[in-house]
Amino acid sequence: MRLLIVDDSNMIRSRISRVVQSGGLAGVSLVGLARNGAEAVRIARATRPEVVTMDLTMPEMDGVECIGQLLRLFPNINILVVSALSDKSTAIAALKLGARGFVAKPFTDDELKMALLDVMEAR
Fold first, then answer.
1. Tell me, what CATH number does 73's domain have?
2. 59, 64, 69, 74 alpha-carbon torsion, rounded to 10°
């Protein structure tokens, strides 16, 4: 299962990749890290990820716009929104667009793992 991590925070990107690479999720390989939606679309075209963790509030292209573009390119992609709860209405919009799950920041490693497993099983 190929994973793309999209977040404008270097700290969050590092944390998600550490959780994934620490062996807590069997069969998941990290194929890219993107700082915004525009970068995510470029990386996704090259790497064809099956799972994406998506922040919503980012410069250049936000998460909602990026989700729409990724789902047009890859209709079966599984997107997990990882965002602050203050963005509740934006998160609902993302789920309506086709994101498959939501984890609120701040999150624990276990919350992230469980949410990723749920999204991967949704395939």
1. 3.40.50.2300
2. 120
